[in-house]
Amino acid sequence: MDLKLISSIPNWKVEDQLAKIDEEVTEFKNAIDTGITKDIIAEGLDVCQTILTMFQVLEIENYITEGVETHNKKLNGRGWDLKEIGDDILNLIKNSMINELINMNKKLKCLDEKEFNAKIQFLDVDKLWNLCMPLVNLSTIKGVNESIDEMKMGEFLKNIN
């Protein structure tokens, strides 16, 4: 799954976004009543999008990756078996790495790429290793078997951590 955030939300208010979430949930319920798969999926994704947008309104969107990891651990802790969503493991890894770099940059408070490159040298080695480890494993396995199934890759990456 490759959901995107809206790139610009000009001064949206929490109350307005909550109303939008309610509206989309109602449309989702109506779509379920119709039983039309295409509409159910579309309206369900609209609900997801309005919640992601709420994260932006609250200015917490940079914590989504961490939140997803915490959420998945919670579900695992409750005994639920989890599976990957969709078939695009490369985008999952890329987005995770990008979010991690953005979070690092916010903590380092860098003004430009040159300053970031200079400061990143002083970060904890384990933090940097965690950033690149999925990509290293992915490229190694892809090199061994060019036709590897992405779902199998997702299972592998889930099990290496």
Question: Terminal Cα separation, in Å?
Answer: 21 Å
The coarse silhouette is: globular
Largest sheet: none
* Poorly predicted spans: 144-148
How much strand content do the residues show?
A: under 5%
User: What is the total number of structural domains?
Assistant: 2
* Assembly category: single chain
Write the H/E string, N to C: HHHHHHH
Radius of gyration: 19 Å
Query: How many helical stretches?
Result: 7
Name the average pLDDT. 76
Overall helicity: over 70%
Structure description:
The protein is mainly alpha-helical and 161 residues long. It folds into 2 domains: 1-59; 89-160, no CATH class. Helix content is 71%, strand content 0%. The protein is globular and about 55 Å long. The two termini are 21 Å apart. 4% of the residues are buried.
Quick summary:
With 161 residues, the protein is mostly helical. It contains seven helices and no strands.
Topology diagram in text:
Elements: H1 14-34, H2 37-57, H3 64-77, H4 89-108, H5 113-120, H6 125-144, H7 150-160
Label this structure with key terms.
about 160 residues; single chain; 7 helices; mainly alpha
